[in-house]
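Lab notebook, bench 4. Continuing the backlog of folding jobs that were queued last week. Each job is logged with the same field layout so the records can be merged later without manual cleanup. Today's entry covers Sulfur carrier protein FdhD, a 271-residue chain. Filled in by technician R.K.

JOB TYPE: sequence-to-structure
TARGET: Sulfur carrier protein FdhD
LENGTH: 271
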Amino acid sequence: MEDKSILTRAVRKYENGVFFDEVDEVAAEFPLTLRLNGEEWATMVCTPSNLEEMVVGFLASEGIIRRYKEITSLSIDREKGFAYIEIDKLPEDRAKNTSKRFIGSCCGKSRQFYFTNDMLTAKTITAKTELTALQAIHHMQELQNHSEEFQRTGGMHNAAICSSTGLIQCYQDIGRHNALDKLYGYCLMNHIPVKDKVIAFSGRISSEVLLKISKMGIGILLSKSAPTNLALELADDLGITAIGFIRGNRMNVYTHPERITEAVLHPSETI
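JOB STATUS: finished
OUTPUT FIELD FOLLOWS
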């Protein structure tokens, strides 16, 4: 199957009192079933791009692997919608704690959270990484500049991993959790150290998103959207700096503000 994140569809539009026919672009939605050591383990609904990175990141976030080299084989059959994963030393306790389930592309109740695996794999972050307010705003602008799929369809979430100086890699997906898993997989597959890195993110900061950031081991999360109270409680407990509503030259630093060396912009500063 050809890897297409964006598909076209005929649509009848209405504008200024007139109907007309046009071809519109829509985000592709693709079900991928993971078979782990021969057993069906989970089905993910995602954007059909960077599937290997997503699978690797998801396995790591669920505590099945800690390093990419623990996977002895990984193949994806796009025609049938299956990912086949073999792991020599499968941690049975963690595999059993992850029930076979359908993982939807929508946000919130379609995902199960607060499994035993979350407790086993969430990390308290002690990184001393610092960022200025200007750098945080610049990272969010870079994320938006790399959001071509969202701009074309309006149906994608975007996530990027950044250094203090700029964006390193960016992924898009219809599921915000999938976009983060792709980043996690990319870091594991390419041996990217994350202790001094930052995540820029387009979606709401939910408890699920916060837990994924913790499992990745990253101390600063930037978002243009709002957080939930539970996410902020977790951020406080896990040592993560959560910043939301980064829009224009504004932002809200909700937790661990000590990592942001310029909490506010001075009138003389420009982007």
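OBSERVATION: The longest strand covers residues 6-15.
SIGNED: R.K.
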